[in-house]
Amino acid sequence: MGAGRMFGWGVAGLLLLGAGVVAVRTVTFQAPGQTDLSKVTLAEPIAVDADRAAQHLGAAIRFQTVTHQDPAEDRSDQWDGLHAWLAATYPAAHRAMVREDVGAHALLYTWKGSDPSLEPIILMAHQDVVPVAPETEAQWRHAPFGGEVAEGSIWGRGAYDDKGALVSMMEALDALAAQGFQPKRTIMVASGADEETRGGSVKAIAALLKSRGVKAEFLLDEGFSGTTRDGFTGKPLARLLIAEKGYATMRVTASAAGGHSSTPPLQTAVTDLSKAVVAIAGHPYPMRLKGPVKDSYQALAPQVGFGDRMMLANTWLFSPWLVARIAAQPSGAAVLHTTIAPTMLQGSPKENVLPQKAVAWINFRIAPGDTSADVMRRSQGAVRKLPVTLTWDKPPYEPTASSSTTSRGWTLIAKTVAETFHAPVAPGLMRGGTDSWFMRGVARDTYLFTPMLLSPEEEKMIHGTNERISVKNLEDMVQFYARLVRTAAG
Ligand SMILES: [Zn+2]
Fold first, then answer.
1. For residue 434, how far is its CA from the centre of ligand 1 (angstroms)?
2. Higher pLDDT, 376 or 332
3. Assuming Cys at both sites, which of 41, 364, 403, 489 could form a disulfide with 185, CB separation 3.0 to 4.6 Å?
4. Does position 177 have pLDDT exceeding 90, yes or no?
5. 245 C-alpha to ligand 1 centroid (Å)
6. Burial letters for 403-425: b for 16+ Cβ neighbours within 10 Å, e otherwise?
7. Which residues surround ligand 1, an ion (CB under 5 A)?
8. Which CATH class is domain 246-392?
9. How far is the centre of ligand 1, averaged over its atoms, from the C-alpha of 308 (Å)?
10. How high is the pLDDT of residue 31?
11. What spacing in Å lies between the alpha carbon of 60 and ligand 1's midpoint?
12. Per-domain residue ranges for the chain?
């Protein structure tokens, strides 16, 4: 046999071996975050009065708890009104729980459990909503702060984000209190007043709980809702988010002599700034499948066909293909790396004046594994030949650590999700920011999920025009919190 032929056989043998490894791994692959939910038994459902809950959510929407970029525009009396309304509407819950006003309109409810040796559970939902853009007001089919119940839905700003959750929790806790439920494990509800502007009113709650030595078993805050058609599997899927990306805004400043625009030098503050923005933003982070994001996709293995399962089970070989497939959708691309988004620019206040200072703001969403220090170092490297300075506009928010996908908390939430919404559950990564970031260290594990299932069509109304949730979704959400609380704390 010639050397060439021997080499050929060698290559064929290696390929065959590789194919064998791929096949074995595909067949025996254990997806992460797949605890056996069949062994978990949930508490029985409660009777939910969906129409009453819908009227209540409508009433909550009518309080215009809008947070603005400039807090001076916020109407403080609207939060006071909402607080009084909560107490009047949910008397049983307010008898069972202690309510503390923790400054800046944040609320902390505590329903003391009978067994103090058990770690508490914390539910979170924020009270504030984003503004309605004046030019879109006419496009609302029902007034944005009317809280109307029509066409099978409750309409208005906050119906989805996040008064739907706040009202659902209260409906559930009030019903449980009214029927004499006594938790063994302490239940807390922590409600921030300024989540949409990242005002951090929840910081005071976190400080209070830490000063009391509270360490919760788990915390559940808003996240993504489940979808009726996931971009990867094409089927229903609920993503229970286990980590949050970091958030940081960089200020890029270029200075120059200024002067009249009729006699410009070649190099000005604006040309320097432009080059710097292009140098930073034109140098994107590579997309990688790693950490919690890798887990979140591998967890889909049981729900996809052989081809996709083969790729998910053999990321050592197929990572580039998977990355390309996930990145084909903007929401998929965003979780695969730290994103770089130039958002604001400032130069001269007059068209014929050269600025002495030009500023750009670049917003970064930092992937787990990266830090704000890495981002700064990398950006400094990109602009090292340019006369610009880089600073953080505000202190950065680092990405959070990943929570467990095998804990009792994960298992109970996942089971309640699966049973209420009839969708498989997989871990995921939060692209945006939530109030739970300020509660870091208070709970062993933090999970983010907005308990409902939406179609891709319905998802478009989040923070947009015609925000609403269906009465059926609201009913399911109440049931979700009731069963979770009864099972986890009962
Ligand atoms: Zn929200």
1. 7
2. 376
3. 489
4. yes
5. 15
6. bbbebbbbbbbbbbbbebbebbb
7. 161-162, 222
8. alpha beta
9. 33
10. 77
11. 15
12. 50-244+400-489, 246-392
